[in-house]
Specification:
The protein has about 220 residues and is mainly β. It has one domain (about 30-215): Immunoglobulin-like (Sandwich), CATH 2.60.40.1190. The protein is about 5% helix and about 35% strand. It has one helix and 13 strands, in the order βαββββββββββββ. Strands 1, 2, 3, 4, 5, 6, 7, 8, 9, 10, 11, 12 and 13 form a 13-stranded mixed β-sheet that branches. The longest helix has 8 residues, at about 20-25.
Length: about 220
Amino acid sequence: MKQLTVRRISGDILFATQVAAVFQEQGIETHQVDVLNWEAYDYAPLVQFQIAHDNRHIFLHWTVDESFVNAVEVHDNGRVWEDSCVEFFLSPDGDDTYYNLECNCIGTALLGGGRVGTERPHLSLSKMPQIRRWSSLGYQPFDPDEVLGSWQLSLIIPVECFFLHHLTSLSGCEMRANFYKCGDLLPVPHFLSWSPIDTPSPSFHQPQFFGKILFE
């Protein structure tokens, strides 16, 4: 099982625009999303992420370099996975109750939660703005021909957004998670993961294949 340690940062990060600089200053480790799980989808863009926390928030910074970049969805809890999209799935208790946080390259996000094989409600639209975001591409949809293949995305996720749990702190917690890159409707669809998945066809909703993450 893959494993990583989520460092606790010092100081405050109030805005998503600060995440990348603080991570650089504090030497937060970079991880690769590079596992090609399905032979039919062998395109592998360069995808990296960094993750840290401050006990009450999870901070994520993504760096992506891909051949095609597209962003159509502008409504939270919409079909962001069809665009150039990165995803963070988290099981706080290490079981099959988990959250899927998906975000396209212009910062449109989806957050769902629940158990495997059941209805998975979304975080209410009124609370989605609690997830603070910064995109290097801005926040408006664009023509794919207008954008080169590199982009960055930063997220600040309060623990309150994990709406099926009553998390009050992260320090000392052991959870399970996976990190993904996809683009279902891009010219070259792809489905990469951090922790390997063993299923016949692409499916990210597989908590049995999540890796372990330890919060300092």
